[in-house]
Amino acid sequence: MPTIVILGGAYVGVRVAHSLLKTTAKTVKDLKIILVSKNSHFYWNMASVRLVIPGQLKEEQYAVPIAKGFEQYPAESFQLIVGSAEGLDTDAKTVSVKVGDAEQSISYDHLVLATGSRYVDSNVPWKANGTYEELAATIKNVQERIAEAKEIVVAGAGATGIELAGEIAFEYGKEKKVTLLSGDSQIFGGDSVASSAANELKKLGVVIKTSARVANTTTLADSGKTEIALENGEKLTADLFLSAMGVVPNSEYIPAKLLNAKKFVEVDETYRVTGAADVWAAGDVVAKPKATFVNGDLQATGLAKNIDLVLKGKTPAAISLMPFDVAAASVGRNRGVGRMGVVKLFSFMVYQMKGKTLGIQKMPGYHNGSSF
């Protein structure tokens, strides 16, 4: 009985699991899929910048139990293990998984690494860093603090930071002062649409400080405010400091020989892990290319097809991604900036594609596999 173990219950892991159960399981006898996820819920983190605004989204719009999405399959074909990957032995073809206080070893015929990445600051919900209970508590905490704060500083001016600052400013207007810090000389990493993003944020009243890289933060005992020390020597204070900087891969359980210097997994053009037979990887944990939802989606689709090919004795194929780079960010709830390759997108186009809903209408189809 071929056993495929998938580590990670976010977009990539869930998509690969559904794809294999819908296609490969029909032709490969007794195929077993084991999905290991630290979070018991499928979390639509794309909407995290909006769900932290009190009253905007209901819980069921952004988080649903993973298990419910797989009830359609025979019980013997699928198993969900809510736990965290702690170790990997590619020679023995086993994964160590911690479930509660106990640790167990799981054998695999093929292994998919889809554990993604996380923000260094674990007190923000831009990604699901821990269990669902921990995530829910973080969301509630940030919602309450945003509601109470009068001065908010957002550090990190990539897409997440831009969208977060825009959401807060759109909701509260002049009630709150929102400052966005960029460590670079421009926001959005100097992308060609950076100036457009800056103009949209300024229309909402967001104060932008560039070349303002955070050195450290300190909670002031007398006021409870946060003091933000910048590398240029400047100091700011805020009622609330929200970090959207410092993304690192969730790869601590992976042997160093399979990682590059920045701890990302190295893969070939088929997304098979370099130096490990029968191990595959996709999504944010992979070294290339830029981590985006679209790239992860295409990687997951191709990876599932390649495992299907290998199980049928065929040669896996190179996975094709987008032929051009895409960058987009919503700014508030009715505007946005973006481009496809070198072609700039109009604001209303970004709004329709992303900003209007942040994709939450797509969540049911990803959760139960009906979109694939």
From TrEMBL:
- GO MF: electron-transferring-flavoprotein dehydrogenase activity; flavin adenine dinucleotide binding
Where in the numbering of this chain does the FAD/NAD(P)-binding domain appear? Answer: 3-290
InterPro entries named among the record's database cross-references: FAD/NAD-bd_sf (IPR036188), FAD/NAD-binding_dom (IPR023753)
Q: Which SUPFAM superfamilies match?
A: FAD/NAD(P)-binding domain
Any one Gene Ontology cellular component term annotated for this protein: cytoplasm
User: Pfam families, from UniProt?
Assistant: Pyr_redox_2 (PF07992)
Which key words tag this protein in UniProt? FAD, Flavoprotein, Oxidoreductase
Give the top-rank taxon of the lineage listed in the UniProt record for this protein. Eukaryota
Q: Give the UniProt family note.
A: Belongs to the FAD-dependent oxidoreductase family.
Q: What is this protein called?
A: FAD/NAD(P)-binding domain-containing protein
Q: Which organism is it from?
A: Microdochium trichocladiopsis
